[in-house]
Amino acid sequence: MLHIFSALAREAIEYISIVIILSGVIMACFRLARLIIRAHKGICDDDKDSLIRLRLSFEGTLMLGLQFLMAADIIGTISNPDLQGVIVLSVIVLLRVILSFTLSKEVAEMDRQKREHEERELRTEAAN
What we know:
The chain is an all-alpha fold. 92% of the residues lie in helices and 0% in strands. The chain has three helices and no strands. It has helices at residues 2-41, 47-79, 83-127. Helix 1 packs antiparallel against helix 2 (47-79) and helix 2 (47-79) packs antiparallel against helix 3 (83-127). The longest helix is centred in the C-terminal third of the chain and has 45 residues, at 83-127. It starts with a helix and ends with a helix.
């Protein structure tokens, strides 16, 4: 009974992660298309800032999807604990942790650049 429940839970969580990642990709594509159209028409003044916000949003969605996938893998390994499954899970978790760390670092750097850009704009406005 527990194996059936854990298999269903794992599958449900995997589907949720797929939905999260796909929704992030679709939203990012629509927002990017809108940015390109606005830039082509000359409507958008802050292209770099808009791209930074787009990337931050998309990377946050990817990290959330990765966390759900990792949870599904943990449930699968708990319900069927064999040495090969544990090794595979360990490698997957290690890769996801490295990817999450890299993405988090990039998000923090992009956020820092955004704050610096806003501070420069405020100083420019104050000087005028």
